[in-house]
Amino acid sequence: MPQFKIVCVFLFTVFLVTCNFHGGADKVLTNVEALVDQYPDSALRLLDTEILEKNLDRDAYYKYILLYTQARDRKNMDIKNDTLIFQVRDYYLNKKDLLKIAKSYYYSGRVLESQNKKEDALSMYLDAELYALQTENDRLKGDIEYSIGAINHKKYLKDEAISRFKLSAQYYHKSANYKNEFQAYNGIGTAFLFKKELDSSFFYLDKSLLLAQNIKDSAGQGLALQNIGVAYRMTKDYQSARAKFEQAIPLFKKNEDKARIYLNIAYSFNDERNRDSTLYNINNSLELIKGDETSSLRSMIIQLQSRIEENDKNYEKALAFQKEYADYLQKIFKEANNQAVLDIQKKYDFEVIQNENNRLLIEKQSASLIILGLIVLVLGMSIFIYWKNVKNKEALTDAELKISQLNDMAESFNKKENSFKKVLLEHFDILKKVALLEGHMRDDEKKQGQKLLKKVNEIIYKQESLDWNMLNDTMNQLYNGFPEKLQEKFPQLEDAEVRICCLVYAGLNNNEISILMEWTINTIQMKKSIIRKKIGVEGYGNLSDFLIKLETV
Question: What is the pTM (predicted TM-score) of this model?
Answer without folding.
Answer: 0.54
